[in-house]
Amino acid sequence: MAELLTIGEVSRRSGVASSALRFYEERGLIRSEREGRGQRHYPREVLRRIAFIVFAQRIGLSLDEIGDELSKLPPHRAPTGRDWSRLSGTWTARIDERVAELERLRAGLTQCIGCGCLSLERCQLSNPGDRAARLGPGPRYWIGDRPPKK
Amino acid sequence: MAELLTIGEVSRRSGVASSALRFYEERGLIRSEREGRGQRHYPREVLRRIAFIVFAQRIGLSLDEIGDELSKLPPHRAPTGRDWSRLSGTWTARIDERVAELERLRAGLTQCIGCGCLSLERCQLSNPGDRAARLGPGPRYWIGDRPPKK
DNA sequence: TTACAAGTTCAAGTGAACTTGAAGTCAAGG
DNA sequence: CCTTGACTTCAAGTTCACTTGAACTTGTAA
Predict the structure, then answer these.
(1) What contacts B70, CB < 8 A, 6 or more positions away?
(2) CA B24 to chain centre
(3) Which chain B residues touch A23 with a CB distance below 8 Å?
(4) What sign does the CA torsion over A55, A57, A59, A61 have?
(5) What is the pTM for the complete model shown?
(6) Of A20, A85, A101, the CB nearest to B139
(7) What 8-state DSSP symbol labels residue A75?
(8) DSSP codes of every residue in B73-110
(9) How far is A59 from chain B (nearest CA, A)?
(10) Is the pLDDT of residue A111 over 80?
(11) pLDDT tens, A68-78?
C-alpha cells in the first residue's frame, strides 16, 4: 500500500473515471502532486474528499457549491473527522429540505392531480412559503418557487 | 374564460415559458390546434398535463420518461381523474425510492464521512442492494450503484 | 398609417458535468 | 528493438432542457 496513489488507482478505488478526476482537479476540487515525469500522485486522503464529492452530488449540489464547501476545510492540515462533520452538518439540512419537497410533491400528486381539483393557482396557494432547494433552468414557479417578481 | 388558450395564456397560468411550451410540443409532450393563422391554441386540459410534467421533473424524471408516462393516457378521450392517478401511482414509488436514498445518504454522511471510518469499499458493502434512482452521467458506483460489470 | 404586442419558424447558443479523440511521453517486458 | 500500458495535454464533442436571436406575419389601438 503506497503512500501516494496514481490516478488509475484512485479511479479504481473510487469508481470515478480518470477523466473526471482530472476534471475535478481543474475545477480545484482535488489536488495532486507531480514528481518524476508529470504524473499525478494523490495522497490517500483524496479518497475521502472524492467520497464527499460524490455524496454531495447525489444530494443535489453542483460542483461549484461543492467547491465552496470544500474550501472551508483547513488549507494546510489534513482535515479531521470533526472538520468533515462540520461540513456534512449543513448538508443534512439540505437533505431534509429535499425530502420535505418530495413529500410535498407526493401529496400534490395525489391531491391536486389525481383528483379533479387541479388548479394551478390554488395548487400554488395551498403550498405557500416553501422554496425549492435548487432552481434549475426552466419552468419552476409551482412547487414553492415564487412567480417572477412583478 | 375561453375554450381555447393561447400560448401566452398558458405560459402565464403555468409559469412555464412559451419557448418551453413549444419545446414540449416538439417533443410530443403536449399538443395544440392551429386554426386561423398558424397560432397555437390549447384546450384547458393542457394545464393539467403541464402540471404533471413539472411535478415529474421535480421528482427527477427526464422528459423522455415523462413522455413515456404520458403516452399511457388514453389517446382520444380526455383523461379522467382515475387515469391521472394511475400514472401518479407509479411516481409515488419513485419518490419513496429517492427519499430512501436521501436518508441513506444522510446516514452515510454522518457515519462514514463524519467519523474516521470512511473506507469506500466498506461504505459500499454497508449499503448493498440499493440502486440509485437515476444514473446520471458521471461517477456513480457508490451509493448503491453497482461497479461496472466485471 | 403607423406602431405595438403577440404570435410564428428555424438555427444556433447555453451551462453543467463530463467524455472522447488525437498526439505524445515513459518504463517495463518479451 | 518493439510493443504495451499507463499516463500526459488540449481541443472538441455529448446530453439535457431549454433559451435566444433573427426574420417574419397578424390583429388591434392611436
Answers:
(1) B29, B49, B52, B53, B87
(2) 14
(3) none
(4) positive
(5) 0.78
(6) A20
(7) T
(8) S-TTSPPPHHHHHHHHHHHHHHHHHHHHHHHHHHHHII
(9) 7
(10) no
(11) 999 999 988 88
